Amino acid sequence: MTEHHLTAILDRANLPYQDTGVWGSLNDRPLEYVTIAGEDAYRAWQAVRAVVAPHSHPLVLPRQCYPPGQVFPQESPAQIQKGIEAAQALDLQQWWSDRWANYNFEAEEDEFAEWSDLDDRGRDDDLLNSALPLNLAEDPNFAITCDILSQTPHPVWLTIFPQIPSWQIPLYLQYGGWNACPLPEEHAAALAYWSRYYGAELFGLDEATLELWVAEPPSTEAAALAIAKEHFAYCDDIVSQGTMTVTRLAQILKESCHWYFWWD
Predict the structure, then answer these.
(1) On the chain, which terminus has fewer CB atoms closer than 10 Å, C or N?
(2) What is the pLDDT of residue 218?
(3) In the 8-state DSSP scheme, what is residue 146?
(4) d(Cα 175, Cα 205) in Å, to the nearest integer?
């Protein structure tokens, strides 16, 4: 098995980084990290991914999210395997349907609609782009790399999860299970499905935010709407506290290589 060191990869790609260190350990192997400026994080993530994929996976984290000294998996290997099996056995179609409950997709209330006739340019576009950090067709501005209110980039950590596919990372971090945030095995099931069909990979996460980079985003309105419904089931806050309608979320997701989820 080839060892890939972050600093060597970034040096070859001529990408700047700040301090380096050991974040923790995974299966008794050290987890190296480097500190990256927020504006460089996406390019650095892509550079590392190009070297280590598909067997290992880079991950972006805010520095305060998981303090140094973490030991993974936080659960026993048997519990991790149980989580993997639960994710693989989950009926996502039924799970999404259960999460939709009685939501009426045909009669959505659009609180942004009143803005559409304010002037000839139409301020609806401005609201659409500011509703969520999702306006990123070519140059993703991932929310995790910047202050969400000021959009000012801040330093983040970049690490590599060795010999673990992207969709299993929530199981190793035991991510989720609070409020409406899915359980770790539910995250894993959804991420594995989106990886298989859309090339979605985990870019980064923090205490309440999870972001994916998508290699093959939907290119038609019908496909985007179908995925928007899945996103709404997975994380209804991105609609109820963001785009206000699933239809508008679908407009944002069409041909976007960035998928954003947030649970308060």
Answers:
(1) N
(2) 93
(3) B
(4) 9
